[in-house]
């Protein structure tokens, strides 16, 4: 599965001083180390509706996973929930069924518009 890492934020780690020389491969000895992760992220399938590459998002599609998250959270009707990055709202609609108040923060305006349409009046 590709990692959601920005090229700006990723960095190469050097082995700690306590390791024996030659016991760990460094990025300098493996020129393909950095390129391998970049190839995986560009090989992912593109979502024509929501181009989420810029934000590093993944859409939660499996309803059983969403329900499992809500069940494990053990939400009560008096709880207030903060959800960061709700995406299309697959988890949000399940949280709204259980919690008193849900506040969501989405930085992608297209996702925010989709979420607003989906939960209008709930």
From TrEMBL:
Bias kind Polar residues: ranges: 26-49
Residues involved in S-adenosyl-L-methionine binding: 58, 60, 85, 106
SUPFAM superfamilies tied to this protein: S-adenosyl-L-methionine-dependent methyltransferases (SSF53335)
Molecular function terms from GO: RNA binding; rRNA (adenine-N6,N6-)-dimethyltransferase activity
Coiled-coil annotated residue ranges, if any: none
Region (Disordered): 1-49
Sequence similarity: Belongs to the class I-like SAM-binding methyltransferase superfamily. rRNA adenine N(6)-methyltransferase family.
Name by which UniProt lists this protein: rRNA adenine N(6)-methyltransferase
Keyword Thylakoid: no
EC identifiers of the protein: 2.1.1.-
């Amino acid at each position: 599965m590709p990692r959601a890492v920005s090229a700006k934020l990723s960095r190469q780690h050097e082995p700690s001083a306590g390791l024996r020389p030659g016991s760990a491969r460094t990025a300098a000895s493996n020129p393909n180390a950095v390129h391998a992760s970049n190839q995986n992220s560009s090989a992912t399938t593109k979502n024509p509706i929501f181009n989420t590459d810029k934000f590093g998002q993944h859409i939660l599609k499996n309803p059983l996973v969403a329900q499992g998250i809500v069940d494990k959270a053990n939400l009560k009707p008096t709880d207030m929930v903060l959800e960061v990055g709700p995406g299309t709202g697959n988890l949000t609609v399940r949280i709204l069924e259980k919690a008193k108040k849900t506040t969501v923060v989405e930085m992608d305006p297209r996702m925010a518009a989709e979420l607003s349409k989906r939960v209008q009046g709930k």
